[in-house]
Amino acid sequence: MGRSLKAARRVTAHKAVRSVPPDFAFCPVRLCALEELLAAPVWPKVLNIVAPVGYGKTVLMAALFSELQERGEKCFWTTLDDRDVSVPLVLNKIETCVYGEIEPLHPAEALFRGKDVTEMRVSRLLDTIVRQGEAFITFIDNCDNCTDPALGYLLDRLVFEAPTSVRFVFSSASKLPFNLVQAKLQGLLREVGYADLSFTATEVRTLLGRQLSAAIGALGVDMVVKQTEGWPAAVRMLQIALAASGDPLAELERFSGSNEDIVDLLNREVLSGFAPKVRDFLLGIAALRTFSADLCRHATGCDEAGGYIEALLRGNVFIIPLDRERSWYRLHGLFRQYLLKEAQRLLPSTQRLAILDRASEWCARSGQSQDAIQYALAAGAYERASTILERTAVDFIRDRGDVLQFSAWIEALALHGQPLGPETGYWYVWALLLQRRYDEGRQQIQRLVRSVGAESGEDILAPDMQRRLGITRVCLDIFSDRLVEANRNAAQWLEGLRADDAPFDVTSAYCTRSLYFSSAFMFAEAREAAHAAQIAAFEARSFYANAWIIVLNALPSVLEGNFAMILPELRSALLSARTRLGENSGIGGTLALLAADCAVGMGLNDEARALLSHGLVTAQIHGVVDTLLCGFDAAVKLWTGGAGDPAPIQLLRTIA
Q1: How far apart are alpha carbons 138 and 150 in whole angstroms?
Q2: Is the pTM of the predicted complex or chain greater than 0.90?
Q3: 97, 258, 397, 431 from 472: Cα distances, Å
Q4: Alpha helix stretches (DSSP H) within 286-348
Q5: How far apart are CA 439 and CA 105, in angstroms?
Q6: How far is the C-alpha of 294 from the C-alpha of 363, rounded, in Å?
């Protein structure tokens, strides 16, 4: 399927088009750091904001985002939450910023594209940015939520390889794993730390307000700065405590700035300032990652949820609106951590689990499947989690490609003895195949057949599931190099061809037969099957499918030695793949390997070396044995044992 960056993309129902920064319910203190950044004559390629929780990193980023947009800068915003632990998930969010929403792949197409490893995705992203030629700034909040060791690789490539017109703003609570020293030496980096975000006396006065500042005087303001060390969250808590006190100065003198005092402030001043029902409400919603009034009302059973949220917003009690309509919110991380501990201590476990269970129910009804499943699992409502997953499995595998999260849910359900529904079982097969766990995929197909057959009281699957699993078996056999079984299953599947079969499934079946016939040196049959695949691919409108058909059309000619006849077509297809999909697409590599074999056969050794160098980059993650053998044939013929060989023997051994 072509992925032209300028093309419009269908937005799937469960995802927003692009993220926006939080819309704070209060007027943030305008930091000196903000003014300095905005006044800088040269904006850095990377602004790296690193400070502990409670220092207002998101506040600063949101203010920068707003100011830069007003200046006419093109800005994107994304926030990583505690679910975005892997680089593929981070890339999903960055790609959404750059590409817009991407139409989901058919699972078989995803498999035929090859394992889209991080390196390839990042290369394609950078190629895209260069081709677009647009200047923009990408804000990524809470980068440290990603714990994947590959995060450093991703950040390094973005920082050092993206065009100078593309800039980044990162925030994290800890040091990010990219090459800070090199970035500094190249003048690419501006760092903002906790010292830059700490409140000065002037900023403390602004937060406290004129009346409270006058009540404690200049010495009192200095005392706030000293005791809190300018930590914005602590200053805010003190402001709440001092405003509620009859003697603000005396209250201030009792505050030492220790962690114990801050917890005491939260408990004694922030929470004690509310009626018991409001305190219980806050403890109840602490388990919710994000929330709306309706969700809170349903989860807690509190009819006054909307009024409580409004009151908390008016009191500026660490609640952050997530949209401009102020319909969705989250608790400040520091405040939420405290509330979770207090809820663990004060609320019965039955009450906490019931809130999670009802939250899951509400989210499922509202189409928020990921939260619904997470809350259900946390509540021990495994049957509900399984029911939701059965209805939404396609979203996570085909639409999101989130195979790791999906697999983790399956394993959690299996651990608690919860059987899978047929749809969940089917998409779990694809999750395993997309992770190249072929033996486990076969076992899962067998389990699925047994479980569905037992449920229906019949020996066979329902016709629709039978068709879908049939083509899945074909793909599984192809990619585990069982060509005889693949051809037999493809032929059987094509005998029962139906009008409602997916075009890409039909294409896959004919491609499978063509590959088998080429491997058996039945070249006429191979070309006939490739032609049938081409007809089906026209309806599928898939660039990848058409590129594979070119590969399969070329393979008989390469094996016959008709190099001069087929090389021009391979060159043209390779150029098209590079234009449409970037330099390092898997199908481009496969085309390059076939072209290299042709070039060697025609004595065009320099061209062959260049093609081989290109093709072997993706050889471990794309293609099938028969196409890879053409590349190996070229590599062996070009091998001299010298340092300039495009394919050292050790590399070939690794690939083999």
Answers
A1: 19
A2: no
A3: 32, 61, 14, 12
A4: 293-300, 305-314, 333-346
A5: 23
A6: 10
Q: Is-contact 507 494, C-beta < 8 A?
A: no
In angstroms, the CA 438 to CA 631 distance is 24
pLDDT score at 273: 62
Residue 12's pLDDT is what?
A: 33
3-state secondary structure of 219: helix
Q: Beta strand pairing status for 189-192 and 166-172?
A: unpaired
**656 CB neighbour count, 10 Å cutoff:** 10
Per-residue CA distances from 566 to 100, 258, 368 (Å) = 37, 76, 51
SS3 47: strand
What is the structure's pLDDT at 330? 87
**Residues 201, 206, 212, 217: is their CA dihedral positive or negative?**
positive
Task: Give the H/E segment covering residue 504.
Answer: helix 503-519
Report, as ranges of residue numbers, the positions in the chain whose pLDDT lies below 70: 1-18, 24-27, 100-117, 255-274, 315-317, 334, 399, 401, 452-461, 540, 582
Q: What pLDDT is stored for residue 388 in this prediction? A: 93
> Per this entry, what is the length of the chain?
656
Give the CA dihedral 196, 202, 207, 213, nearest 10 degrees.
150
45-57 exposure pattern, b = at least 16 Cβ within 10 A, e = fewer: bbbbbbbeebbbb
Q: Which amino acid is at 76?
A: F
User: What pLDDT is recorded for position 288?
Assistant: 93
Element (H, E) at 141: strand 136-141
Q: What is the pLDDT of residue 538?
A: 80
Tell me if 654 sits within 8 A of 620, measured CB to CB: yes
